[in-house]
Design brief:
Distance between the termini: 58 Å
Largest sheet: 9 strands, mixed
CATH topology of the largest domain: TIM Barrel
Strand content: 25-35%
Shape: globular
Number of helices: 13
Structural class: alpha/beta
Bound molecules: ligand LLP
Oligomer: single chain
CATH superfamily of the largest domain: Alanine racemase
Length: 443
């Protein structure tokens, strides 16, 4: 297994992260357990901030909290000078509870409810990323009623869709997100926004995809947004102060994944901005980005205890762990690949190829197909790397399995930032109405 950040194999043959032996972490916190390498998170934040500083442009780097949103994470990214992107009242509430400065919070989403908009306005957030005309009018009405002015970016679809290794230049009219540049709705959106008494249009936002390894898609998006900016300036006399280019910067999950360095992504984007916007406006726009996965993805490791196994001679050996698709739905949802190490015997030679199954009651609950490990027995510890992004945040209670705890490790210290759910948590919101309870008694 590739060792990310501070991960290493210590002299006892145990995986160690942030100076903490995972065998001790199991004893202290139990399994399954999400372990986050705090130093690596901080390093990634610094890489973004420093790369933008080097560009000389004005900027904000907003951590896309959907990747992993808990209060301690909000606090860490805040300390590293980041802004924050939230998409729901829950993410917003988490940020506010963590004391995240509201002015540095950006609110996304294609269907913000009136309650969410009110909550965000009352909190004094820095910017709404408006997705459609219905939201635009709702936001104006609520801002008017509250007599406040709110900053707005319009989410536009530039006609570039990027995947890991390639981008597709399409009309991309068929997307649930944003105002399409190609069919004129983005232009109309700018025009309508400019006429609203309580909305301040800062500029536009574009997000072209996730887990992207190449810079061409970003460069093309900058070019398309710049052409749009030119049209808006000529036709409406409006100049964008801010251009947000979203997230999507890739990370290494397994061999063969070839992400660029953060500094390379940032340089490609900022160079493209300089090239394309210099022709349009004397003052270059402030550039915002929203990395999620590349801040926290490779900083996360999930620790499991091995339970049963089933060996089917000539077919395969299934090894079951005490978690699965409830704590990591990505293999089932996206056929994602992961690497793993036998964390309590990491120096031993690989002996067998096994497949790692979860404990949910369905065949699709597999974490890794075919991984080479030393001979695995019950009680061994299995660590799956690169589970920091979109694992805890997408975890579920399927089969009423408890969500694991999350621990931050750094310099030999380990601290819970989310407690493991209790059985009481599992039934905590359940109600048995009297009408039904009575029926059970009288039967
Ligand atoms: N900004 C916007 C508007 C987004 O929609 C996203 C991700 C991001 C930023 C952050 O993208 P990142 O840097 O993390 O790639 N659940 C999927 C990923 C969904 C991404 C959705 N939007 C997964 O597990 O791979």
């Amino acid at each position: 297994m590739f060792l990310h950040g501070t991960s290493k194999i210590n002299d006892s043959g145990h995986l160690e992260i942030g100076g903490c032996d995972v065998v001790d972490l199991k004893a202290k916190f139990g399994t399954p357990l999400y372990i986050v390498d705090e130093q690596l998170v901080r390093q990634r934040c610094k890489e973004y901030v420093e790369a933008f500083q080097a560009s000389g442009l004005k900027f904000q780097v907003a951590y896309a909290s959907k990747a992993f949103c808990v209060m301690a994470m909000c606090t860490v990214v805040e300390q590293e000078g980041m802004s924050l992107d939230v998409v729901s009242e829950g993410e917003l509430y988490t940020a506010i509870q963590a004391g995240f400065p509201a002015a540095r919070i950006h609110f996304h989403g294609n269907n913000k409810t009136p309650d969410e908009i009110e909550m965000a306005i009352d909190a004094g957030i820095g910017c709404f990323v408006v997705d459609n005309l219905v939201e635009l009018h709702l936001l104006q009405a609520i801002a008017l009623e509250k007599n406040v002015h709110v900053n707005v970016l319009l989410r536009v679809t530039p006609g570039v869709e990027a995947h890991t290794h390639e981008y597709i230049s399409t009309g991309q009219t068929d997307s649930k997100f944003g105002f399409d540049i190609g069919n004129g709705s983005a232009y109309e959106g700018v025009e309508v926004t400019s006429k609203q008494s309580h909305l301040e249009l800062l500029g536009v936002h574009s997000h072209i995809g996730s887990q992207i390894f190449e810079v061409e898609g970003f460069q093309l998006a900058v070019q398309k947004v710049a052409e749009f900016a030119q049209g808006v300036k000529t036709g409406l006399g409006i100049v964008f102060k801010v251009v947000n280019l979203g997230g999507g910067f890739g990370i290494r999950y397994v061999d063969g994944d070839t992400p660029l360095k953060v500094s390379q992504y940032v340089k490609a984007i900022t160079d493209a901005v300089k090239e394309h916007f210099a022709k349009i406006q004397s003052e270059l726009p402030e550039i915002w980005v929203e990395p999620g996965r590349s801040i926290v993805g490779d900083a996360g490791t999930t620790l499991y205890t091995v339970g049963t196994n089933k060996n089917i001679p000539g077919v395969r050996k299934y090894v079951a762990v005490d978690g699965g698709m409830t704590d990591n739905p990505r293999p089932a949802l996206y056929q994602s690949h992961y690497e793993a190490v036998l964390a309590n015997r990491a120096l031993e030679e690989a002996q067998e190829t096994v497949s790692i199954a979860g404990k949910c009651c369905e065949s699709g609950d597999m974490l890794i197909w075919d991984v080479k490990l030393p001979e695995v027995t019950s009680g061994d510890l299995l660590a799956v790397a690169c589970t920091g992004a979109y694992n805890y945040s997408m975890a579920s209670n399927y089969n009423r399995i408890r969500r694991p705890g999350v621990v931050f490790v750094k310099d030999g210290q380990s601290d819970l930032v989310v407690k493991r759910e209790s059985l009481q948590d599992i039934v905590g919101n359940d109600l048995v109405p009297e009408r039904i309870a009575k029926q059970a008694v009288t039967k």
